[in-house]
User: Fold this.
Amino acid sequence: MLNLLWYVSVLPLLLACVLFASPAYSGPAGDDLLQSENISLPGQYGAIIYRINEQSPGQLFIVGISHRDAESLSNHYDTAQAQLEIFRIGEWLHKNLDLELLLPEGYFTGEKRVSVRDSHAVTGEVDTDLLYARLADDSCFVNAEMLLMAQYGMHAAQVEDRNIYESVCNCLGELTRKNCTMMQMEAKLDELQYLQEIRTARMLQEIPSAIEAELRAGTIRNPYAMLTIGLNHLHDIIRYLQKNTIMITPPERGDKRMERYTAELAQLRKGYGITVIIPRTLADDQQLLQATRLDEIVPKGNSILATNAPAQQLQ
Assistant:
């Protein structure tokens, strides 16, 4: 298990990531491109940190996101800019690859309904200043995914497991109580890590069936999707993909209901190319990368990691 100091340092980030399934204006970092045979994402939008199976017929783009403050609902200093970049990434994927499906962390649907593609959606590029102002407005909650759906008629589908999600929320709620002893906090933090890893694993395993269901329903026309998920999940996601196996060990002090979890990702890896992207503002924040254990794998400058050859095997 990770040490207590690391947990305490990222607890606010974890709380925001669970409670809000999404996220001061600065100029672009440059117009250089991140090259690949299949995509050429503008470098000012983000950094590609991991990629496999680029030639697969299906493509999953995993975008690390920044959230509003969990208690005040206000934007952090970089939230609006990061959300603007997430919007631009989704917009670019929609226009260049005809990606139509969003898989937002924390998104839940009721009964499935077949949605009709909005033929009246405005397809022109949204003005950057207006977009930033909308995302920076603390008086109402809006995020990149909501704006992509409104602007381009994109569709959203659920990949969250509600029971696991609620267990994580309950665990976080207990951690925020001020009457916890140090020993209780350590045990609860171990439990939180376990639950978050299970939550991440379940989302990854659900993605292929979610995409296939939308294809059958006719809500999308190709097997492409963009998963938006808190930056703190990316370390585990890349580790699972590298090993093609999910192995999660319950904490030593956990209760008997927390069991060892093992599963394969063969279905996801076999059928889909996977590209992991960090918005430019977050990729340039070294302190944030260290807090989320991504500092050793985020490429320097605008380089990308070679296909199937990450810079470092994650443990």
